[in-house]
Amino acid sequence: MTNITETAYPKIRSYITDDELYRVYTPSDEEVILAQANTKGDLSKICFLVTLKCFQRLGYFISITDVPKSIIEHITIHCNAIFNNSILKNYDKSSSKKRHLVIIRDYLKIIAYGEETRIIVINVATQAAKTKDNDADITNIVIEELVRQRYELPAFSTLERIAKSTRHSVYNSYYKYIYENLSVETIESINNLFNIESNNTYSPWSLLKEEPGTPSHKNLKEIILHYHMLKAFKINETILSSIPNIKIKHFAEEAKTLNASQMKKLETYKRYTLAVCFLKQNIASMLDDLGEMFIKLVKSSQNKAKEKLDEYKLANSKVADDLISTLKNFLTAYKSPGTSEERLCAIGTILEDNNIGEIIEKCDNHNAHSGNNYYHFSWKCLKGNRSILFKLLDSIELYSTTQNKSIEVAIETIKKYRRSNKLEYIELHEEQLDLSWVNDQWWKLLTGYTNRKDYPEKIERRNFETCVLYQIMCELKSGDLCIKDSDVYSDYREQLISWEEYHANISLFGEQVNIPVEGKSFVEFAKNKLEQTSLNADKAFPDNEYLRIEKDVPILSRLKKKKQPENLRLIESLLAEKLQPVNILDILSDTEQWLNWTKPFGPISGFDSKLENPIERYIITSFCYGCNLGPTQTSRSLEDLNRKQVAWINQKHITEEKLDKAINRVINAYNCFSLPKYWGTGERASADGTKWDLYEKNLISEYHIRYGGYGGIGYYHVSDLYIALFSSFIPCGVWEGVYILDENIKNESDIQPDTYHADTQGQNTTIFGLSSLLGIKLMPRIRNWKDLTFFKADKTCTYEHIESIFSDEIDWKLIETYLPDMLRVALSIKMGKITPSTILKRLSNYSKKNKLYQAFKELGRVERTCFLLQYISDINIRRTIQESTNKSEAFNGFIKWLFFGGEGVIGENNRAEQRKVIKYNHLVANCVIFYNVYNMSMAIEKLIKEGHKIDSTMLSLLSPYINQHINRFGRYSLDKERAAPELNFNIDLLKEA
């Protein structure tokens, strides 16, 4: 049963503030005149106005006896009337009220609830049920539509009943449709998934849900075996084409929580639907894993080849020294005094002492390995993985996303000769292979020539095979090559909006982000922006005490440290004394009582929860995973709870999406405090990653050179108000910056920043280009920024002071030509069709063929140059970036402190569970931050009343990441009788100052 508090169904609060009474329940002059014209006497007039104002607030009529006394008294006083509350009950049964309802509906142009409205409710609920999973969300969509069309809202029980029945109806129609379109063979195959053979411990269904381990031969063979087993089900691809993708994912998610025995107990149609959706998602997931493992295996071989080159250089360093010494002797002989014949004779003397052929051979070997050319070692380092890589290529279907199909032909060629082990060269006839994609270093190895003018008659087979495998890796990364039916390695263009949708929406989009959307106008706009920014920087240079230019390189002096208030340390010490000791469970309990952040949690199936004390269980589960205690340790630390009960809640009731909703509830309430407003505006956020340790035996775990050790990256967006807005878990090998724009699109909280700060990992020119089209300001802290290129708007532009720092100009024609394609990407992101990270992963340095990548990169050069010019010219920008990124680093330390269980290692090997652990930890951290700000606000108010001088500057230097008062260790207990203190957001901290 859906609780009314879980929905947007309007209701009058029991306690109403004076401000709300004045704003919401004060009748206008027009409304008073309307009441006087349709009533007789004060009693009737007051009842009419109370009914009118309550309806305006609620959208439905309520009994006047249910109206809070404060509203009636407020309206009575406003009308200078005398009113007797004792006779209110007579009004609800009177004919006067019936007449008043008709007048009010007519005045407000509201349509009464009836059969017509009921049909609309059913239709809207049916459509909503196709994308929403629980009755509360369906009810909210219905309410929104009824309000939009100016219909009177029915009783909540009516909406609840219709939401439940339509959801069941929609789900049952899906179940029946899918089952009836399955072949007998497929049904039998699905049945076999739930049976445990006599010689096995687990059912095939359980084995399908196992996560892939490290990219080893054994694991890859098992995944390939599983993949072929899934393909053997021969599920008709058209069966799920009419089912919304969000529903397919929901059914697959529900299936994942059920074991074989539970699946067997499901209603027949539902069982096969869940199984089919799970198999469909599993196929896509396994193809993703195969693509990921292919890349990792080839990358590992490539890294080994680079290591071999380093070893070769080290081992042959003496040979290089000898060659340089010989060259010096030659040059010395050549410069010796005497005639040309005498100098030639001196050179000849040196040659007599050396073997000319040997010197030439040494030179050839040195040149072959110069310029970081590790390709000579590539085949030897790759051949150990050769067999499994070909098995993988046999299992997946690769296709090019461009008109250039040369790589597809190359793949078929290496497959054709894969078993020709004795064949040294592949004979080529009439340019049967397009080799234009082969770089110069590979070309020499493949053909034996440096000249590329003539088409080769043959190519070296082994090196060509290695070269193609390297190219597959690069093109999978860039999106130039895709895997059919994969999710991650699909063609991103298929997720973009159509050109018809583009043309219908682009004008409005341009207005929203305040940019021209026509090519020439946009180029003029961007060129003016770059030129004006350059002029401003040039003009500011003489007065800029922090900037100087030496040898055409801009150099910035260190910022002077701000002087802190003298009594800041004293106030921090007094503040710490007033914070009462508390344990994390009590913090979670108090914040839950205040905010009801567990509200989004509930059965994944969408059915009503049958748990006893669900809130208690949700708090404990959040504590268990958010602090990394794990179910076993949590059950030891808490009474009346076992390990399976804790794990069961995590598996059956809580998903990543539900955790995000809980996090947003905390963020929205946090935004109501006044104290964080001294720390920032909410318009800025900083992004940063921190390494979380993992066990090696899973696909996401990688060795991170910068951080050291195996693990994954927790990536967070932290508001300048100190609260964390977004979290995700990514592999170590991924460039963190590709995720920086995701938060802006996925963020559903009340805090909506438009400016993002990050470190060097959070930027590149492509990200700058895309962010500008999304209306997002990117202002990172860039290491070695002075080594970056400054671009001019035009070569004719000259500057008095900063001319020497510019070294290139923008290709405006490229931007103008591909602007529609870039805007189509941006508009697709805004419309929720694709995430920024999906497109940015494709638009990388590997995208040699992709003109869209080149256009975004060129636009990014404009934006990054503008930013760099502002960065070196404005000291306040530098300070703001420094302060914002410092907050991210402080937050990273804070969440690590809260993640004290399990020695700080994420013990889950399942990737979905790893992501959930990051979300749990994020939720716990935000609850603690909320609790700290509440207590800090109360303590500051007390300190001010005690006579301590506290001003806005001092408040701005405080931080909610304090933990001295929080007990992490010991035996825990959840105090079921604990009552949280009254929550007060309206503390004016400086009113006493």
Automatic annotation (TrEMBL):
Residues 2-164 form the DUF4158 domain. Pfam families: DDE_Tnp_Tn3, DUF4158. Keywords: DNA recombination, DNA-binding, Transposition. It comes from the Bacteria. One of its GO terms (biological process) is DNA transposition. One of its GO terms (molecular function) is transposase activity. Residues 586-972 form the Tn3 transposase DDE domain. The keyword Ribosomal protein does not apply. Belongs to the transposase 7 family. This is Tn3 family transposase. It comes from Clostridium estertheticum.
